[in-house]
């Protein structure tokens, strides 16, 4: 739910004619457009005496794109930006970018909609022939300029939206049901459709491929696109997806109640979150056969915080009974108190406090807020009562009501047949130490899709999942947490090379100090027994027996 996405290494992309695989792909270039794609290559290798064909010669100049008349879209500006420093709106620092055409636009699919989006289009000679949509974080009403910049540098035309409102305050949804729908799923679809047309006009042809890349809320958006608008994207990356949104919001509420006193004080101080992580790692690090400071699969770890219970009164190195109780509840997750039905998976052992920043612990979404995180969901979206008291929550009654009234807030459909049929490819990853979106819930969603889609092999044909041990929310953590998922997805979509693992690295102070594969779920990376445990070459991906006892997974919203 942060604005960060997994960092991508510098582009290794080369201009070349995109290939259209044997699968059904409605957005594959038609014959005419492929010849333009090939012309791009020709343009790059001019031979003496030959006429150089310039790609995009049929395109509209940047300045003239503002004259486009796309229904419900208003183009505010279209400006050619020279290569060099560019300072995005409201940013303090400039980012260095290659030249591009910047289009600022607004979409109004309903009379109450005000969806701002920007499309950045490289000049024809620098364009890789593709479009990339980038996702958002939290409820942030902000265009993702940093993610756009990363895509533009790779040669992509890129698009991002503010999701239909400005800022992170959930009051935007109060008495604005259409804006809520814009946030939940419509804004991404609308920006995608409009940007495809705008790019077509700018370049004289449609993009050969479209990709979506997002983490956290962006991961939610990614899964929503695959579920709701399977034609929008050829390839989709869903990182640490907050797609089980309604149940997760209930889990935020309950986790806050468990971990705060009646007068709203945090029960577990920040320093003791780190103590919990140390206790869990000490207890479970070796279960995977390698003492490397990483709990490989927290489902196998049954560390009980009572091990750290104070014996002679409270001090910094032990836990009081109230602290033990709060931590146990965080690990156990939300269950229906009447039926015992799991509502939302607990947070992983190892996610309590593994880094300095609030997002690298339970602080940002649980301990630090003065009220339950996202309590605005109940006040402004669900009950339409700005004074709603979270102490009055009734899990049975209110969860059923929320799932009945706001089903569009989640993206939990497990039948992805339309996306598979159109040839779409979906790559999902998550951090096993994510302190925000419980990774066990993400595992439960994938397992649910596998069941709905006819088994693991049939699912892997279009949807692959990679778990990152020791990675936090979208990035960070003691485990390898930097990887280039987009290059893997490009290979899959464009060359039919499905990824079996992702090459990941961990850095300290900007220096890589560990590499390791992230394996194709449910495989795990195991050290071969010789060579450095910090070198990916000494690991193989293997299948192990399921964690026992298998913890009951979140049922997920139906
Ligand atoms: Ca370990």
**Termini separation (Å)?**
23 Å
Percentage of residues in DSSP E strands:
15-25%
Helix fraction?
25-40%
Major β-sheet profile: 9 strands, mixed
Radius of gyration: 24 Å
Each distinct ligand: calcium ion
Mean pLDDT: 90
Number of strands: 17
Number of helices: 14
Shape: globular
Strand order of the largest sheet: 1-4-5-7-6-8-9-12-13
Short description:
It contains 14 helices and 17 strands. The chain is of the alpha/beta class and 558 residues long. Among the domains are: 31-207, no CATH class; 250-408, no CATH class; 508-552, no CATH class.
Structure overview:
- The protein has helices at residues 31-44, 145-153, 177-203, 217-228, 245-258, 270-284, 321-332, 363-367, 376-382, 395-405, 417-421, 439-452, 456-460, 485-495, and strands at residues 73-81, 84-86, 95-97, 100-107, 115-121, 130-134, 157-161, 209-215, 235-239, 334-335, 342-344, 425-431, 463-468, 501-508, 511-519, 524-527, 539-542.
- The relative contact order is 0.12.
- The protein has 14 helices and 17 strands.
- It is an alpha/beta fold.
- It starts with 30 loop residues before the first helix and ends in a 16-residue tail after the last strand.
- The strands form five sheets. Strands 1-4-5-7-6-8-9-12-13 form a nine-stranded mixed β-sheet, with helices on both faces. A two-stranded antiparallel sheet has the order 2-3.
- Residues 285, 288, 290-292, 294, 296 line the site of calcium ion.
């Amino acid at each position: 739910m942060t604005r960060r996405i997994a960092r991508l290494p510098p582009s290794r992309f080369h201009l070349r004619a995109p290939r259209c695989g044997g699968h059904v792909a409605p957005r594959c270039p038609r014959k005419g457009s492929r010849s333009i794609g090939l012309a791009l290559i020709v343009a790059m290798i001019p031979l003496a005496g030959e006429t150089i064909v310039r790609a995009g010669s049929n395109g509209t100049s940047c300045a003239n794109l503002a004259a486009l008349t796309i229904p419900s879209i208003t183009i505010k500006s279209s400006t050619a930006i020279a290569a060099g420093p560019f300072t995005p709106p409201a940013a303090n620092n400039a980012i260095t970018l290659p030249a591009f055409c910047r289009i600022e636009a607004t979409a109004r699919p309903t009379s109450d909609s005000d969806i701002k989006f920007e499309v950045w289009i490289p000049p024809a000679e620098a364009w890789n022939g593709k479009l990339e949509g980038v996702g958002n974080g939290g409820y942030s009403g902000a265009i993702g300029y940093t993610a756009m910049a990363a895509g533009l540098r790779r040669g992509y035309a890129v698009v991002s939206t503010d999701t239909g409102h400005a800022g992170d305050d959930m009051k935007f949804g109060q008495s604005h049901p259409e804006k809520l729908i814009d946030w939940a799923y419509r804004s991404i679809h609308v920006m995608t459709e409009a940007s495809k047309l705008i790019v077509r006009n700018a370049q004289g042809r449609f993009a050969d491929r479209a990709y979506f890349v997002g983490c956290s809320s962006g991961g939610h958006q990614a899964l929503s696109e695959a579920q709701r608008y399977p034609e929008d994207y050829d390839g989709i990356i869903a990182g640490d997806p907050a797609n089980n949104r309604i149940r997760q919001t209930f889990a935020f509420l309950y986790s806050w109640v468990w971990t705060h006193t009646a007068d709203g004080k945090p029960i577990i101080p920040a320093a003791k979150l780190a103590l919990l992580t140390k206790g869990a790692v000490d207890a479970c690090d070796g279960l995977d056969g390698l003492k490397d400071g990483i709990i490989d699969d927290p489902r196998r770890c049954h560390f009980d915080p009572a091990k750290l219970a104070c014996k002679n009164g409270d001090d910094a190195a032990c836990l009081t009974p109230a602290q033990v109780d709060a931590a146990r509840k965080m690990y156990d997750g939300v269950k229906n108190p009447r039926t015992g039905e799991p509502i939302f998976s607990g947070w992983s052992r190892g996610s309590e406090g593994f880094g300095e920043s609030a997002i690298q612990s339970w602080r940002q979404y649980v301990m630090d807020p003065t009220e339950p995180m996202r309590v605005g969901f109940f006040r402004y979206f669900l009950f339409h009562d700005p004074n709603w008291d979270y102490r009055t929550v009734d899990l049975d009654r209110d969860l059923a009501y929320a799932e009945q009234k706001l089903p569009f807030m989640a993206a939990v459909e497990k039948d992805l047949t339309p996306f598979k049929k159109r040839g779409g490819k979906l790559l999902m990853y998550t951090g096993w130490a994510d302190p925000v979106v419980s990774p066990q819930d993400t595992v439960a969603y994938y397992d649910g899709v596998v069941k709905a889609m006819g088994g693991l092999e049939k699912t892997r044909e279009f949807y692959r999942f990679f778990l990152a041990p020791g990675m936090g929310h979208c990035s960070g953590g003691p485990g390898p947490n930097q990887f280039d998922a987009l290059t893997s997805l490009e290979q899959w979509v464009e060359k039919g090379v499905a990824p079996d693992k992702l090459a990941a690295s961990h850095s300290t102070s900007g220096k890589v100090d560990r590499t390791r594969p992230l394996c194709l779920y449910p495989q795990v990376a195991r050290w071969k027994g010789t060579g450095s445990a910090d070198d990916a070459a000494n690991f193989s991906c293997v299948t192990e027996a399921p964690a026992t006892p298998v913890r009951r997974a979140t049922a997920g919203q139906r």
